[in-house]
Specification:
This is Pyruvate/2-oxoglutarate dehydrogenase complex dihydrolipoamide acyltransferase (E2) component. The chain is of the alpha/beta class. The protein contains 6 helices and 7 strands. The chain has one domain: Rossmann fold (3-Layer(aba) Sandwich).
Length: 206
């Protein structure tokens, strides 16, 4: 119960996180600056990931008949809407490079799977959407919980959406906080992030 209350407080609309190892460490995103390590990580992983082409769906639906064509139209249209987005991930705040590396790698893989194009930090074409992530890890007993908040901005800096959640897993190694977070935990967060982003993009007007 104590963990649930703490996580709920960390994920309130008025607070995003840098380091949340205790209830006193909740910070506003605007009060947290990316670290040199997180900026370096973003530069090294920020490469274009082209959205895969949607092929075969229309041909197969046409051969199957009118009913199948209607059923296939909605998923194809959704994929096209999601594929239009060019998303750039800003340097991650709050997580160590060791923890953030499997996260960013998995974000690229999952984005390809969902047909989302990632814009690199050195790309000359402006992104359509910028994702800013704020992370925290807290250890309680044998488990460590990673709490995360993603704010979604347009290029002008207007916040359009927020994705947040938490992932709890058995602690690895010794100590507490980030050293005890397994790569699989961050990969699961990446999967959830891209899935929620794709759902929002598909429902977003225009």
């Amino acid at each position: 119960m104590r963990r649930w209350i703490f996580a709920a407080a960390c994920l309130s609309a008025s607070a995003a996180l840098s380091a949340c190892n205790s209830a006193k460490d909740v910070l506003e995103p605007s009060a947290v600056a990316p670290t040199e390590q997180s900026t370096a990580l973003a530069r090294t992983e920020g490469t274009d990931v082209a959205a895969p082409a949607v092929t075969g769906a229309a041909t197969a639906a046409a051969a199957a008949g009118p009913a199948s064509t209607a059923a296939a139209a909605a998923p194809a249209q959704t994929a096209a809407i999601v594929g239009k987005a060019r998303v750039q991930f800003a340097p991650i705040v709050g997580a160590t490079v060791e923890a953030a590396t499997p996260l960013t790698q998995r974000l690229g893989i999952r984005a390809r799977e969902r047909g989302i194009t990632l814009a690199g930090s050195t790309d000359t074409t402006p992104p359509g959407i910028i994702m800013r992530g704020y992370f925290s890890a807290m250890t309680e007993g044998k488990d460590t919980t990673v709490v995360y908040v993603w704010d979604v901005y347009d290029p002008a800096g207007t916040r359009l959406h927020r994705i947040n959640g938490q992932q709890t897993a058995p602690s690895t190694g010794s100590g507490e906080g980030w050293p005890t977070v397994a790569p699989a935990t961050m990969q699961t967060i990446a999967d959830n992030t891209i899935d929620q982003l794709a759902q929002w993009l598909a429902a977003k007007p225009g």
